[in-house]
Amino acid sequence: SSLRKKQEQEGSRYNYDVKVYFIRYREYEKACDRYKRVLENWSMYQQALYDRCFQDISEAEAKMQKAHKALDLYNTVLDKSAIHSDYQDIKTLEMFRYFLETGRANDLQECINLYEEERHWQEIKASQERIENTIYFLQNSTEQGLVANEQLDLLLKGSREP
Fold this sequence. Notes:
This protein is mainly α. It has a domain at 82-162. The protein is built from four helices and no strands. The protein has helices at 2-40, 42-80, 90-102, 108-160. Helix 3 (90-102) packs across helix 4. The longest helix is centred in the last third of the chain and has 53 residues, at 108-160. The protein is flat, with a radius of gyration of 36 Å. The relative contact order is 0.03.
């Protein structure tokens, strides 16, 4: 009875696997038929593909020209502006705009002062983080450092002795 059940399960599994195989094979045949149709009409598809590519290239070139014009205008405005070249990068100018929009600054000089103050505090904070990381590293590596120093001393003593 158990053997018969096992044979029925194996037969059922085999039938299922065969069905899956035939379904996948049919899907493969359909895909091959699609590829054959495309290859038979390749000259028509090729021209359509080329046309689409040339259209995409034209659109990209138009967008690039527009971007170049905007960049030229931006650079012209910056060249003629009262803002020193040290503060003309986009992130700094965005901060200036933020300072003016939020009322933290009323004029360009206040924007520059606020920017320099915040940059100074960021440098202090980064320096503090570096110091904390160094202390953490030294605390964790003290034991390993002692072992390494002892081994280095032994090696140096060994190389000094003839």
